[in-house]
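Bench notes, afternoon.
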Amino acid sequence: MRLKRLWNLLGDTLGNLRRGGWGGLAAVGSITVSSLILGCLWLLTVNLQAILSDWKGQFEVVVFLREDVTADQRELLRRWLQAEAAVAAVQYTSKE
């Protein structure tokens, strides 16, 4: 019974496309192209979000200070950096 319904549906579809001519084919084609474009944009969005979330955890900045920087200036810089919400840790390594 289901197979007969499927054949009837397919026959009606082809008959309507024949009667509609190029207009029906253009409608089906435009819907297909629109769906394809939306699918590609969705895939692009999902992949970019995954890449950005990976990069977020791997970001690191190294700052080199001049030799004439005092300990007070260094401490001020450390406090200023730690006040930023995006900064996870601040580590000072001396030249020696």
